[in-house]
Amino acid sequence: MKPARFDYIRAVDVAEAHAALAEFGNDARVLAGGQTLMPMLSMRLVRPKAVIDIMHVPTLRGIDVGGSDIRVGAGVRQAELLAWPALGEALPLLKAALPWVGHAQTRSRGTVCGSVAHADPSAEIPLCLLALDASIELSSRRGRRRVKAADFFTGMMTTARAENELIEAVHIPKMQQGAGYAFREFGRRHGDFAIVACAAIVTGTNVRFAVGGVADTPALRDFGAVDDTALADALDAFAWDLDARDDLHATARYRRELVRQMGRAVIEEARRCRG
Amino acid sequence: MPRLSADQRHIVRFTLNGRAIEGQAEPRMLLTDFLRHELGFTGTHVGCEHGVCGACTIEINGVPARACLTLAVQADGANIRTVEGLAPAQGQLSVLQEAFRRHHALQCGFCTAGILMSLDNYLRKEPDPSENDLREFLSGHICRCTGYVPIVAAAMDAARRLREASSDV
């Protein structure tokens, strides 16, 4: 339960982080808040040659409001985003979901982008980014690109990040006028990994529903403008398509039932939030 | 850029309970081990060592955090408080510690240091929490003895006494 040896590199700007990633590639791990990397190191699930600490890079620490989206830098802690005064107006889905991310004692250190990098299938932030059509800003010495959340999460704890790339920020679209947002989660205890987590975005013409904790990546479906009967059928079909599996925490059948029941509840809540 | 090699010990300096301290750590050394073995501050306990149980919770730069999910070298330059810093004076307990004693909010005591550090921070930010909020906040800690009821009672009692004390001024 102690990490294997590694070099510790404290980057003071993005160029230094890029240089270290170019040098070590997949033998490096980026350290931000450490709330997922540190357990992986201690359990020796990863044994990098170098750990690159990016929390001393001032340009990564900002929450920036753009014309259509909010840019959350790689050094922004979950608690900082949760405490951001404009969160409820700009990103109501994140405001609803962030209290479910770990515990207050881990949100204080864990970063938004760290959760994206780790890509746990039951994690709340990747689920929200998928539902909101957010994109992930990746950069390296060779350039910069943006990848949509739908293309970024490629499997259980695997992403489209290349080994020399740094996740520099996520870009999350602002709340659309006239849309309702809701988030719900079921776990054994608040702050535990979700058995099922779900998000709904309801507009005048569409019901969008996203689910985490069931398949290898968060999953999304647009149901269009459905009435209640069609919604029940659509949720049932989606629940079967998710390819749920039995594990220690819940059976596949139980997860499908949670998708049906919580799906209905979260969609109704999002409808009410449209106001 | 500062680069600390894997197989050497490096000087780490930070403020611990208001006093400047210094020690040596390999890059891989956890802050829990640095506090306990290098500095001799054994009040911070090590439970699960992967961030789940909360026993090692301390305060880093004003927020509660898991010492086991922090490298000693990451703490360089930080302001750190541990359970040893709670008592206002030798032989005198803090209001929160006193409430824990009064309500029997501990049995074996293994989780207590972490819970005290979390609650000390929380009650400064939320002087009048609801029991529900308090329980949600305590979900970041595992206690296998008490069933949490006396811990919640102690925290509510301490919150009330701290509010009264601050309104007396």
Number of helices of chain B: 5
Q: And the CATH topology of the largest domain in chain B?
A: Ubiquitin-like (UB roll)
SSE arrangement of chain B, N to C: EEEHEEEHHHH
For the report, how would you describe the main beta sheet of chain A?
Answer: 5 strands, antiparallel
**Given this structure, which CATH class of the largest domain in chain A is correct?**
Alpha Beta
Oligomer: heterodimer
Structural domain tally of chain A: 3
DSSP summary, beta strand count of chain B: 6
Strand order of the largest sheet of chain B: 3-2-6-4-5
Task: Furnish the topology, listing elements before pairings.
The complex is a heterodimer of chains A (275) and B (169).
Chain A: E1 7-10, H1 14-24, E2 28-31, H2 37-42, E3 50-53, E4 63-65, E5 69-73, H3 78-82, H4 87-90, H5 92-97, H6 104-107, H7 112-118, H8 124-131, E6 135-140, E7 143-148, H9 149-152, E8 153-155, E9 158-159, E10 166-173, E11 180-186, E12 196-202, E13 207-212, E14 219-222, H10 228-241, H11 252-273
Parallel strand pairs in A: 1-3, 2-3
Antiparallel strand pairs in A: 4-5, 5-10, 6-7, 6-10, 8-9, 11-12, 12-13, 13-14
Helix pairs in contact in A: 10-11
Chain B: E1 3-4, E2 10-16, E3 19-25, H1 31-38, E4 57-60, E5 63-66, E6 79-81, H2 95-102, H3 112-125, H4 131-138, H5 149-168
Parallel strand pairs in B: 2-6
Antiparallel strand pairs in B: 2-3, 4-5, 4-6
